[in-house]
Automatic annotation (TrEMBL):
The keyword Cell membrane applies. Coiled coil: none annotated. GO terms for cellular component: plasma membrane. Gene3D superfamilies: MFS general substrate transporter like domains. Residues 14-396 form the Major facilitator superfamily (MFS) profile domain. It is found in: Cell membrane. Its main location: membrane. InterPro entries: MFS, MFS_dom, MFS_Efflux_Transporters, MFS_trans_sf, Sugar_transporter_CS. It comes from Caballeronia zhejiangensis. It is a multi-pass membrane protein. Keywords: Cell membrane, Membrane, Transmembrane, Transmembrane helix. This is MFS transporter permease.
Length: 415
């Protein structure tokens, strides 16, 4: 990039690779959920074990998202991104050689380290590569890869591959694309010319980030949204097969609605927030999720209806994840500390929503029955409505409109 002309070619190459990379994060992370019914038989796992396997990855992801976001602001993006994508791809393959619960938990916790390091760094790299007027769109595009690959395509890929290979080979096969993508990133991704920003990041610390009101509010709100995403992603396959008695193939199709709905929502809800504001979009997202999940509880073994309702619920809840960890966190960040801010917000959401909540859901399923797990995300997103009321508006168009209105009241003439 030069001072006179924006390097659009590099922008699209970088954003495409980073979107594919985050898509593979989603694929490697969520491939395990539709494989759990088969794995439970071979490894003698319980519903509580399933929740713990999802939760331990979320915990380590959250811790390292918070840590590595700040580190990448200081040392650069490449030194974090490329080792991280190679590591989580290899570890995903190693999930297929687990001999029991202990080894599976160990592999998944290490995957969380690598994926948590990749997450905020990749968001910041996308922001670095993007022209300011396309930054929101590009961040939505990159994050939507997680929903498309991880939550839409992974249930279909997993359940169809189970027809021809064992679950162990499924893990091995899906680790290959990440290794290829890591090589491509090595040759394409470059550091931004942002020495002043890096100097500012070197002077700052995480306490400076927390001084912005929207950061702690977004942390709590993202916990509420991620509780919806991760409890559904972890437990819904068991809910559909054990409670509604769907076969494996129909279960895979229904669960894919989480990803397809989320893929659309991660574009649409942040885009809508450009027009109506971050605060109103967040409130609407939580309210829409709550209504749809309540409706979902009353639907029986009707795959098409289940798919439609789950699609809409996921549109809202994954749209919230993109909104809170993208525009809200980015606009609240001090200069030079975008990755730090994203890492802190994502880290908190992951530790509680992606780590603790699935473990609690496993406890609920074991003690009270799998049919009751939906109450946990319903309560979380209702809480999210109240938390969203505390957000300060930062959408540029809304802030400019408010400032223009103040100026006109003060006697200024419209442009």
């Amino acid at each position: 990039m030069t001072s006179n002309r924006w390097d659009t070619s590099y922008e699209w190459k970088a954003v495409t690779l980073l979107a594919l990379g985050f898509g593979l994060v989603g694929l490697d992370r969520w491939l395990i959920a539709p494989l759990f019914p088969a794995m439970m038989k071979d490894l003698h796992l319980t519903a509580q074990d399933v929740g713990n396997c999802i939760g331990i990855l979320g915990l380590s992801w959250g811790v390292f998202a918070a840590l590595m976001g700040g580190i990448s602001d200081k040392i650069g993006r490449r030194k974090v991104l490329i080792p991280a994508i190679i590591a989580f791809s290899l570890l995903s393959g190693f999930s297929g050689v687990a001999g029991g619960l202990a080894s599976l938990l160990a592999v998944r916790s290490l995957m969380g380290v690598a994926e948590g390091s990749f997450c905020p760094t990749s968001f910041a790299a996308t922001a670095d590569a993007s022209h300011p007027k396309r930054r929101g769109f590009n961040l939505g595009l990159q994050q939507s890869g997680f929903a498309l690959f991880g939550l839409a395509l992974s249930p279909i890929i997993a359940t169809q591959l189970l027809n021809v290979v064992s679950w162990r080979w499924v893990f091995a096969l899906v680790s290959i694309p990440g290794l290829i993508l890591g090589v491509l990133m090595f040759f394409v991704i470059r550091e931004p010319a942002s020495a002043p920003a890096q100097q500012q990041a070197a002077k700052g610390n995480w306490r400076d980030v927390l001084k912005s009101r929207n950061i702690p509010v977004a942390m709590v709100a993202l916990f509420c949204a991620m509780t919806g995403v991760f409890v559904l992603g972890a437990m819904l396959p068991l809910y559909l097969t054990d409670y509604l008695a769907l076969d494996t193939q129909r279960m895979g199709i229904v669960v894919s609605a989480i990803g397809f709905g989320g893929f659309v929502g991660q574009f649409a809800l942040p885009g809508l927030s450009d027009l109506v504001g971050r605060r109103l979009a967040s409130i609407a997202g939580f309210a829409g999720t709550a209504v749809m999940l309540y409706v979902f509880r009353g639907v029986g073994a009707q795959p098409l209806v289940l798919f439609i309702v789950l699609f809409v619920a996921s549109f809202f809840t994954l749209g919230l994840v993109s909104l809170l960890s993208g525009p809200v966190a980015t606009e609240a960040a001090p200069i030079g500390m975008v990755s730090t801010a994203i890492g802190i917000v994502v880290g908190a959401g992951e530790i509680f929503g992606g780590g603790v909540a699935p473990a609690i859901a496993g406890f609920v399923a074991t003690r009270f029955g799998i049919q009751n797990i939906l109450w946990l995300p319903i309560c979380a997103v209702i809480l999210g409505i109240g938390v969203s009321l505390l957000l300060e508006e930062t959408a540029p168009a809304r802030v400019r409109g408010k400032a223009r209105g103040v100026g006109l009241v003060g006697g200024e003439q419209p442009e």
